[in-house]
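Let us walk through a complete example step by step. Step one is to write down the protein sequence. Step two is to encode the small molecule, NAP, as a SMILES string so that its atoms and bonds are unambiguous. Step three, shown after the inputs, is the structure prediction itself.
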Amino acid sequence: MTDTGSAGTALVTGASSGIGRELADVIAADGYDVVVTARREQRLREVADRVEREHGVDATVVAQDLAAAGGARALYDAVAAAGIEAVDVLANNAGVPVYGDFTETDWADERRMLRLNVEAATELAKLYAPEMVGRAGSNSGGGGGPDPAILNTASLASLFPIPGKAVYAGSKAYLLSFSRALAHELEDDGVTVTAVCPGAVETEYATRGDVEESETMSGITSDPRSVAEAAWAGVRDGDRIVFPSAFASYGGQAVRVLPRKAVTKLGERTVEDGASWL
Ligand SMILES: NC(=O)c1ccc[n+]([C@@H]2O[C@H](COP(=O)([O-])OP(=O)(O)OC[C@H]3O[C@@H](n4cnc5c(N)ncnc54)[C@H](OP(=O)(O)O)[C@@H]3O)[C@@H](O)[C@H]2O)c1
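Step three: the predicted structure of the complex.
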């Protein structure tokens, strides 16, 4: 590690593709050193090389399966072993979907998803939040960045029960609720917590469930760069929830006024013909 006089250090999970790869780039462009993590090491090296070349910051690669038992703790230890003294921004972004009717889906797949989407994100916050509280106000990097921050990639699915993707939607509802409560708890400690709630985004996410893009998706998808930029702007502003597109914002409003059963029906409609647009 070189002393680049950076704004601080950001740890981005799920940085090998999609929203996480763009988050690493957007945050690095703001002068942060980054630690990028996921399972595919070669992909992470490409991301790290790009941000170092284009933004002149330090990038550290840690390959880790966060759905494995002890995965979050192993990542925390590896980051410390790499000589990173402080994580100023924790971006809990890694997440996967599992599609299918609950009576037919494989519990092993859903348990891995819960470990990743829920347990690892919570444990990383558990490990880093106390340290962030201890440093808040001191702005360790000295580069004029925002307060220590946690960014959780939730989803518009945080707001909709989704028949056909019930456990995934439940995992994202958890993440949003957890984020909002933690934001409140840490407000006076100078640590911000932001949840970003995208609608459909063009990433590898759609293909992880062996689904094809549905006709309904055309015209409402976002690109991962715009989601990352909106999320980071929200972190800088200390926002608690970010809806990164007009479609996501509309969805967020709709659930406030529709009857509960209609909201669940709407959730059901996001999964059609074996495809999902949330
Ligand atoms: N795309 C959408 O429509 C959409 C909408 C709302 C919310 N989201 C959320 O956005 C986040 C990012 O997803 P994305 O759309 O950018 O999809 P993506 O391109 O599939 O990215 C998922 C990331 O998570 C990593 N990951 C998957 N399993 C992992 C594991 N066991 N351990 C560690 N890392 C793992 C992947 O890397 P490796 O495979 O290399 O491990 C990858 O970097 C997720 O939380 C997702 O739920 C996506």
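Step four is interpretation. The chain has a mean pLDDT of 91.
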